[in-house]
């Protein structure tokens, strides 16, 4: 470089600059700090069009779903909402074995909906590592690679980010936060994924549930620590950092595990967090009051756009779990009561949102739906004739 003549160096730079420019474009799957999971394992929740109204009313822009359901992709078109779709565990094995299938999947479920539907990310698999299916664990990395290869082929890597959400089952120990490491049994699957994510600058995605941690050990955990309420806090003797809430501590535990495994620069993103408002008899912490406290304080915490004690400059982003109570979810009673909203669109408890069912827009939408079956509004056009105007233009206020 130093040997090259001035002129050659100049031209060289000119040619390099646009390339450098492109290389520096970082794809961001999550542009705000407060997103939400739109889980749909229910037979009584509002459809995508009403959900768009609810989300806009609640000023929530970042949304994550667990599949790539076409009614949702269609319903979100033109809404301005930013959507992360899921390649569900059911597909991970076949996507691992076939890059053609991966390409087809990305074409059908991502590319063909762009740009009207702002798909900003693909979550490949959900809580695969540390689960019971070892073949699925083995297949995850191959699936991630094939989906990424498809994005490269379709020139979508600057628009769509890949992630793969993990549960706490990937960690051997998370107390105190600085001592957290990945389980040995997980590392063989985790390492190649983290190597790859480091290269493509994808974050480490983790699901964080102080509710579950507290519920598993209520004798030793102060519920105020889990709920972001005033409490003595937890001191980490190794780092000398103080934690006044478990949410931050769990995120820093993930940072510690990443560092111990050699991934110092990787960002941690929360793909799920929430608190159940009701549950089985032994799920005593699943109350409406606790769920309200957690979600109210969490919302305040995320809106501060702050980092954690270990990473004060890295703003924490989280997708809340979940938008609605999902009546068809299996498992303990709590699983069906994570929603900020009930199935009818009304709020589960007050954390500052107003819900759908009482709103003017919603009742108007319902009556429109009844009368037209298409999501349109009847309006007199410039020609004086009565016509249909797509609802999208009508309520998009930006
Ligand atoms: C994943 O794909 C690779 C390459 O096709 C194959 O060798 C491997 O057996 C697959 N693993 C699973 C668990 O399907």
Supply the number of helical segments: 13
Highest-level CATH class of the largest domain = Alpha Beta
Radius of gyration: 23 Å
Strand order of the largest sheet: 5-4-3-2-1-12-11-8
What overall geometry do the principal axes of the alpha carbons give?
A: globular
Cα-to-Cα separation, first versus last residue = 49 Å
SSE pattern, N- to C-terminal: HEHEHEHHEHEEEHEHHEEHEHEHEEH
**Poorly predicted segments:** 1-23, 367-398
Based on the structure given, which CATH architecture of the largest domain is correct?
Alpha-Beta Barrel
Average of pLDDT: 88
**Which hetero compounds are present in the coordinates?**
2-acetamido-2-deoxy-beta-D-glucopyranose
- Domain count, please report it: 2
CATH superfamily of the largest domain: Glycosidases
**Strand-pairing-aware structural class:** alpha/beta
């Amino acid at each position: 470089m130093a040997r090259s003549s001035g002129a050659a160096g100049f031209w060289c730079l000119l040619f390099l600059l646009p390339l450098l420019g492109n290389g520096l474009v970082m794809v961001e799957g999550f542009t705000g700090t407060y997103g939400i999971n739109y889980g749909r394992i229910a037979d009584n929740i509002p459809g995508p069009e009403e959900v768009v109204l609810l989300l806009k009313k609640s000023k929530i822009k970042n949304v994550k779903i667990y599949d790539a359901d076409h009614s949702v992709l269609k319903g979100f078109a033109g809404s301005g909402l930013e959507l992360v779709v899921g390649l569900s565990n059911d597909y991970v094995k076949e996507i691992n074995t076939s890059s053609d299938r991966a390409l087809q999947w990305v074409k059908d479920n991502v590319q063909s909906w762009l740009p009207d539907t702002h798909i900003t990310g693909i979550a490949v698999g959900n809580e695969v590592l540390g689960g019971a299916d070892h073949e699925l664990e083995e297949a995850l990395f191959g699936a991630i690679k094939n989906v990424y290869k498809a994005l490269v082929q379709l020139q979508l890597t600057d628009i769509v980010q890949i992630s793969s959400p993990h549960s706490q089952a990937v960690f051997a120990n998370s107390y105190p936060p600085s001592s957290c490491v990945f389980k040995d049994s997980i590392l063989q699957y985790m390492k190649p994924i983290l190597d790859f994510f480091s290269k493509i600058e994808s974050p480490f995605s983790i699901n964080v549930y102080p509710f579950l941690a507290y519920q598993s050990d209520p004798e030793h955990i102060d519920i105020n620590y889990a709920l972001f309420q005033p409490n003595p806090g937890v001191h980490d003797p190794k780092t000398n950092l103080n934690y006044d809430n478990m949410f931050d501590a769990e995120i820093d535990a993930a940072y510690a595990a990443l560092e111990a495994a050699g991934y110092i620069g990787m960002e941690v993103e929360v793909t799920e967090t929430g608190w159940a408002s009701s549950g089985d008899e032994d799920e005593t912490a699943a109350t409406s009051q606790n769920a309200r406290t957690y979600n109210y304080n969490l919302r305040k915490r995320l809106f501060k756009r702050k980092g954690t004690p270990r990473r004060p400059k890295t703003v924490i982003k989280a997708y809340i779990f979940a938008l609605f109570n999902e009546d068809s979810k299996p498992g303990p009673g709590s699983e069906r009561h994570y929603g900020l909203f009930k199935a009818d669109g009304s709020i589960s408890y007050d954390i500052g949102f107003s819900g759908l069912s009482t709103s003017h827009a919603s009742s108007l939408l319902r009556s429109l739906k009844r009368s037209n079956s298409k999501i349109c509004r009847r309006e007199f056009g410039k020609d004086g004739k009565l016509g249909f105007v797509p609802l999208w233009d009508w309520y998009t206020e930006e």
